[in-house]
Amino acid sequence: TKDLSKTVGMLQNGYAPTAFQGMLLGEGVAQDVEFWNAGLMTLMRGKPSRVENVDPKGVRAWKEGFGCVWKEAGVWGFDKEGEPQLLKPDYFDGVDFGKGFYLPFAKRFTKKLQGVFPKTMIFVEMPPVDFGDMEFPQITKEDIPNAVNAMHWYDGITLLTTTWRSYFTVDFATGKPAFGNKALRKAHQKQLAHVASFGRKKMGNMPTLIGETGIPYNMNNARAYISGDYSAQIEAMDNTISNLESQLLSFTLWNYTADNSHEFGDLWNLEDLSISSPDSEALAIRLAGGHTRRRDDSARGLRGFARPHARKIAGVPLKSEFTMATAEYKLEYVSVNTEPTAPTEIYVPYVHYPGGYRVTSSDGHCTIQKHENYDIVKYAHDIKAHKHRVVVAPTKPIGGDPRRANAPLYLALAITAIAIPLFAYKRR
């Protein structure tokens, strides 16, 4: 940060002291601290919801006989009247975290690990782009052999507010809002394209795998834990995965926590992102009148994450896209004119196709391998063709309710009318 007395970025939640205020609070000195709630108006204004006095009442964070390390380094001190003064506001300004700290550490880590397992892939996970303005370092293949860009990505507004709004988001990196579902998806896709660019431009064209992504299941005041209705969670997860699909990005879904509970979530800071929970299983059984336990009862919003996708592709993908409203999956890829060593494989879960499904292809032929609750469609393309297309669709076409689809648009128009004067206020 260039000034330790300033707030860094828009990604704030709850009490948000500046770095300097954090140092003073650690020394037991009371401070007037910004408090940011996760409300829509706070996010649109880009200003804290209030300022509160936080008083440690002289209780220090340091052991007896030890002082604040930043005070000892001359970053701040007390004046003659005993008032704290920031002496070096730009103390950290000359530091490049990525180049000066992260990369040297990652190189040492890689050398030790690959000294034992030479072919190990190293997941490079710089902080997400939402966290301030840290520069991604230039990483060569000599620096970190077999490197993978594994930066995390989340729909920040949904994660922060634990509320799904299909019509509004804010790009924390730019501070710009987006209204309407189309604009929301465009903003998220732009963020993901930016994340993927680090693998190409900063790491010598290395692959990108989003190391973490997911949604909070306790959204909307955890109403689903009473009603069993996970429709908001399904929509939010569909938004997340659809945007990843649009950029042809691989990802690891966060997370599966075997001992998740509705009360304490994933047992880490009350985060609640697990796709499965024993409490959700108990709720499903209770709501169904105590039926016999079913395999997927513990799943939360199953349709959101159990979706058709290509798990193996005999070529280079051009499109891998699932449209939940119509339950249609499309795969397009190009191949070289040689006999593939194995067929393309598409995972097809039954949850989206209660009435069955059909498969069409541009060329070649398909076979279906049956499993419990899902199929694997194996597609052997015609080697004479260069571009290939496979479509999985319901036997009978389905579609969403157009009234529900248009509802967010009307909400977005109303919010825009409110937002214009708020942004004018913000610029004052």
TrEMBL record:
Gene Ontology annotations of biological process type: carbohydrate derivative catabolic process; lipid catabolic process
Q: Which residues form the Glycoside hydrolase family 5 C-terminal domain?
A: 307-392
Task: Work out whether the entry's keyword set contains Iron.
Answer: no
Superkingdom of the source species: Eukaryota
Q: What GO molecular function terms would the record report?
A: beta-glucosidase activity
Q: Which Pfam families match?
A: Glyco_hydro_5_C (PF18564)
What does the UniProt keyword field contain?
Answer: Glycosidase, Hydrolase, Membrane, Transmembrane, Transmembrane helix
Positions of transmembrane segments: 407-425
Give the residues annotated as coiled coil: none
The entry's family comment says:
Belongs to the glycosyl hydrolase 5 (cellulase A) family.
Q: What is this protein called?
A: Glycoside hydrolase family 5 C-terminal domain-containing protein
